[in-house]
């Protein structure tokens, strides 16, 4: 099994006693089996159970122990690919529909968080998306105009506007409403508790080692301990572990990124220099992104590299994360607390910058929920609704855009 992250993670330190679930100790029969107990698997399980569908979720380690723990918890409807570039790729109509679907997913994540019995630090935020250089200004203006055209709540900030509100100057920026932040570890733990209470069967330390489809189309899963799970449908929500995939994903890349969290900043300085605690990111690719936490820390990420394995060496990781700290200092020199947590993590990307959601083109009853890209949690919410509809025999309006054999992949 490949490591999905290395280093010192922040989010697991914010929850003292996560819930524990049993391993499978007998054969099971359910309507839907979900393989993977991270953000994607838990949200799928929650939505299916809320819809009255008998489901079981199978996690080989513990809930939220994989990529979820390494998430930075930014929830944005804007994607790694700009709306204007996505419009060139799949057409303006579908691109705008997909962006609206992401906005709806952020809103629905807020509704799920509000219904939980625990506070998972879900807070609506605006996002500042700034031009890294003067050369990026024309495309940023084009993006702003297209977002406005399709009804998104955005405003454009000129360089002087930015410098009046922030302690830095950039050529221009889009300020978008409708985004949010969350504690991803607490969110998954809270959703898993609510889903289990509603009837989702959750099994930890249950490693699925074999999957076959029977002659009558039923899905048969075997655990490493020799138990059998029979299901009408199986959803693979296994994050960024592509060696586990049953089907063939077209042109998916697995890379690594870096993130860090500072110590608690001076509250007055933070409030005076970071308006509205907005999310911040930039037009450069790979991009820098920042947010704050409820206790006044800064979360920063970026410096993506085209290597699959996260860096084991603390010294080599610190060389990267120290660069992230330098970028914080360049933007906010008065926020000078050192890094207290730093990590490297694996993440997936598709070559058309869209997630993989839907049925296996070669095997009916087998579905994938793979939120590849920078909006994994948002994609997970979208996928849960989509897969529920598919399992119920219904059409979902966005399914054609993210299906595994979509035309946009074949053009690249």
Automatic annotation (TrEMBL):
Organism from which the protein derives: Paenibacillus algorifonticola
Ranges of residues in domain FAD dependent oxidoreductase: 31-389
Gene3D superfamilies linked to this entry: D-Amino Acid Oxidase, subunit A, domain 2, FAD/NAD(P)-binding domain
Positions in coiled-coil regions: none
Transmembrane segments: none
UniProt lineage: Bacteria, Bacillati, Bacillota, Bacilli, Bacillales
GO CC annotation, single: cytoplasm
Record protein name field: Glycine/D-amino acid oxidase
Domain of life: Bacteria
Annotated InterPro entries: FAD-dep_OxRdtase (IPR006076), FAD/NAD-bd_sf (IPR036188)
């Amino acid at each position: 099994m490949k490591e999905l992250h290395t280093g010192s993670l922040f989010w697991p330190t914010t929850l003292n006693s996560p819930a524990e679930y049993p391993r499978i100790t007998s054969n099971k029969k359910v309507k839907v089996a979900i393989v993977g107990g991270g953000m994607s698997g838990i949200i799928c399980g929650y939505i299916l159970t809320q819809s009255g569908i008998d489901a079981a979720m199978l996690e080989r380690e513990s809930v939220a122990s994989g990529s979820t723990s390494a998430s930075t918890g930014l929830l944005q409807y804007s994607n790694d690919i700009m709306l204007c570039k996505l419009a060139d790729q799949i057409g303006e109509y579908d691109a705008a529909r997909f962006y609206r679907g992401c906005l709806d997913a952020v809103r629905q994540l807020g509704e799920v968080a509000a219904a939980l019995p625990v506070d998972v630090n879900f807070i609506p935020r605006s996002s500042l998306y700034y031009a890294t250089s003067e050369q990026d200004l024309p495309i940023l203006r084009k993006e702003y105009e297209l977002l406005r055209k399709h009804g998104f709540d955005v405003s454009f900030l000129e360089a002087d506007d930015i410098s009046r509100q922030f302690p830095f100057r950039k050529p221009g920026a889009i300020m978008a409403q409708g985004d949010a932040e969350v504690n991803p570890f607490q969110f998954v733990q809270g959703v898993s508790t609510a889903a289990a209470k509603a009837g989702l069967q959750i099994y930890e330390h249950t490693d699925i080692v074999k999957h076959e489809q029977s002659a009558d189309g039923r899905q048969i899963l075997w655990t490493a301990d020799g138990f059998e799970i029979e299901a009408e449908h199986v959803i693979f929500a296994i994050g960024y572990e592509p060696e586990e995939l049953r089907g063939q994903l077209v042109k998916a890349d697995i890379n690594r990124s870096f993130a860090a969290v500072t110590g608690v900043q001076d509250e007055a300085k933070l409030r005076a220099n970071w308006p509205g605690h907005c999310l911040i990111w930039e037009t450069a690719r790979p991009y820098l992104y920042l947010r704050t936490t409820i206790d006044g820390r800064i979360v920063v990420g970026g410096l993506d590299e085209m290597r699959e394995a996260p860096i084991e060496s603390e010294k080599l990781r610190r060389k990267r994360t120290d660069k992230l700290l330098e970028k914080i200092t360049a933007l906010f020199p008065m926020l000078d607390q050192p890094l207290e947590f730093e990590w490297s993590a694996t993440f997936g990307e598709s070559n058309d910058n869209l997630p993989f959601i839907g049925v296996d083109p070669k095997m009916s009853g087998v579905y994938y929920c793979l939120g590849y890209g920078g909006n994994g949690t948002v994609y997970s919410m979208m996928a849960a609704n989509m897969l529920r509809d598919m399992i119920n025999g219904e059409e979902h309006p966005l399914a054609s855009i993210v299906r595994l054999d979509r035309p946009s992949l074949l053009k690249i």
